[in-house]
Fold this protein.
Amino acid sequence: MAMTLRLPPDLDAELRIAAEEDHRSLHQAVVHAVEIYLAQRETAEVKADPETLQALAEAREAVRSGDVVYGTDAARALLKRPRAS
């Protein structure tokens, strides 16, 4: 998407300084800012959903207790084990 972005002079100046300090182009700085904004919105949505928070807490507990496998080899080994009846 192509667009024209009109910023107030003070915000434009801050953006230019930040982009230079971060060794980014103005375009890259704006894209980065939009990515951060969208990630923060998603985080706010997750924090506002009790079911999602409960699922995250359960996942953290599973990791803490070692009830998680990492990598394809570990998953295949787990699948080969006999199942409890």
